[in-house]
Amino acid sequence: MILKKVLILIIILIIVSCSSQKKQNVLNILNWAEYIDENLLAQFEKEHNVKINYDCFNNTEEMMAKFNNTKNYYDIIVPSEYLIGDLRDENKIELLDHSKLPNVKKNILDELKNLEYDPGNLYSVPIFWGVLGILYHKNKIDINDMNEFDILFNEKYKKEIAMLDSPKENIGVALKKLGYSLNEHSIPIIKEAEKLLKNQVSLVVGYFSDIAAKSLMLNGEASIQLTWGGEAIDAMLKDPNLDFYTPNSTNLWFDVLAIPSDAPNKELAYKFINFLYENEASYANFEETKYNSPNKNVLKRLKSEATNKPEMKLYLDDRFVPKNFSKHEVFKRISKKVKEEQMRIYVEISS
């Protein structure tokens, strides 16, 4: 009888041990759609004997809904820079231990080390960065009509304009069109932008994720797309009739890697972030997505390759890799009231 009890106890301990081990070997990531070289996921799984659960989203609102509706699940999230302040103040993300991120310290671009949204990269490190601009069809658009964001509101191009499914970007370009800052948070002025956007509704083919809108451009169903640099490069490589325009003053954005405070496997999260900053991994990620890498050695490699491969110069073009950050605007934190107003406007124009 005693032997039987001992055997049962041993079996229970083995089951608990296996269950615990299985939990420790899972990494849960929440990232933008088509925003990583999936071969890197397989490589990390093999090297560390882990399983990666990889969830995707298409806009910031979807990301926050997924993140806020889970507890003790995600180990890594990829928010946009303007969310970091709120996530930090609400104790939702980890103060990073940079001693566990030696590749970040060694390889991150100097320009990305001390940005206003997260001085010293205390709570986040960039995964990609770039600018907001306009992808257009060279044979269907008069380049003389391209002045800042004006063409997005030009009746001449009715039903040829694809906008993003994002409140902040839509309201931001309307504010710029009206001569204001992207970061204008005055409700009366935001209502001016609302009026402009409601007048624009009849001109657009719809409000889409960047990936869906890119498909419209490639299929000839749209001639103008508000989008980000990486998606534009990918489209231009697939169709030489497409080109990209960067307004003189536009949105400079940074998507970042952060570790939730309640992440169940923080040590593995650190290893994965550090892995992404390895030179080969960073280059593979850039090559797959076409977005600007935060790794300075990727930029050095591109400059070297461009010497013998002229086509590589596109990746170094000022339209995509701005040398002067100060002339562009990074989105800043907004109050709950402004956020709700932006969402109300977007719902009304996109319904």
Concise description?
Its main location: periplasm. The chain is an alpha/beta fold.
- How many domains make up the coordinates? 2
What's the count of strands? 9
Radius of gyration: 23 Å
Main beta-sheet strand count, sense and barrel state: 6 strands, mixed
Which architecture of the largest domain would the CATH scheme give at its second level?
3-Layer(aba) Sandwich
Within CATH, the superfamily of the largest domain carries the name: Periplasmic binding protein-like II
Percent of residues in helical segments? 40-55%
Mean pLDDT: 92
What CATH calls the topology of the largest domain is D-Maltodextrin-Binding Protein, domain 2
CATH level-1 class of the largest domain:
Alpha Beta
What percent of residues are in strands? 15-25%
Q: Give the N-terminus to C-terminus distance in angstroms.
A: 70 Å
Question: Based on helices, strands and strand pairing, what is the structural class?
Answer: alpha/beta
Elements, N to C (H/E): HEHEHEHHEEHHEHEHEEHHHH
Q: What is the tally of helical segments?
A: 13
Low-pLDDT runs of 5+ residues are none
Q: What is the general shape?
A: globular
InterPro entries: SBP, Sperm_putr-bd
Keywords: Periplasm, Signal, Transport
Pfam families: SBP_bac_8
Protein name: Spermidine/putrescine ABC transporter, binding periplasmic protein
